[in-house]
TrEMBL record:
Matching InterPro entries: Glyas_Bleomycin-R_OHBP_Dase, Glyas_Fos-R_dOase_dom, GlyoxalaseI/FosfomycinResist, VOC_core
Family annotation (Pfam families): Glyoxalase (PF00903)
SUPFAM superfamilies registered for this protein in UniProt: Glyoxalase/Bleomycin resistance protein/Dihydroxybiphenyl dioxygenase (SSF54593)
Domain VOC: from-to ranges: 37-160
The name this protein goes by in its record: VOC family protein
PANTHER family given in the database record: GLYOXALASE FAMILY PROTEIN (PTHR21366), METALLOTHIOL TRANSFERASE FOSB (PTHR21366:SF31)
Length: 171
């Protein structure tokens, strides 16, 4: 996709600065959030078994539940443990066409998952062994590795503590 340049880029940057000044309050002035955190993310998959094999066998996320979707007869709803009390959920919708992934408004760009340096290295080795392509950490972003799952969902393994971004505490 074409990136803004010149005057258009400067206008985008100025708008971001305006939004930051208007909405980003110092930590001491921020109210507490109104929720407890992410219970689960719910994504759509093409093939239940392929998705289970990828997340459980390749990435090491244990499958913790597989039931029928309460809102769509025949559809599966299943969950993986992604640590810290968080779940990654999927639905399939038999009978629906599932076009290839593309970045668009409302789509998931990627999920960034916090990992320790040791687990980051293990993930990289598993991806290498499985012949799965990835971006990073050799592209100037030393602490990130990006892949796409069989459904096109972007996954980032981020060698960073929860609540921090690029070494800076956000929470």
């Amino acid at each position: 996709m074409p990136q803004p340049a010149g005057a258009e880029l400067e206008a985008v940057r100025e708008r971001r600065a305006q939004l930051r000044d208007k909405y980003l309050h110092p930590a001491a002035e921020r109210p507490a959030t109104t929720v407890r955190g992410v219970h689960h993310l719910a994504l759509i998959c093409r093939d239940v078994e392929e998705t289970i094999r990828f997340y459980q066998d390749t990435l090491g996320f244990p499958l913790v539940e597989l039931v029928e979707n309460r809102d769509y007869a025949g559809s599966s709803h299943f969950f993986f443990d992604i640590g810290n009390g968080n779940l990654l959920g999927f639905f399939d919708f038999p009978g629906h066409d599932h076009p290839d992934f593309h970045e668009t408004i409302g789509a998931v760009q990627h999920l960034a998952l916090s990992t320790s340096p040791a687990e980051f290295d293990v993930a990289k080795a598993k991806l290498d062994a499985a012949g799965i392509d990835y971006l990073g950490p050799d592209r100037g972003v030393e602490n990130s590795l990006y892949i796409r799952d069989p459904n096109g969902v972007g996954i980032e393994f981020y060698r960073e503590e929860l609540g921090r971004f690029e070494g800076e505490p956000l929470l």
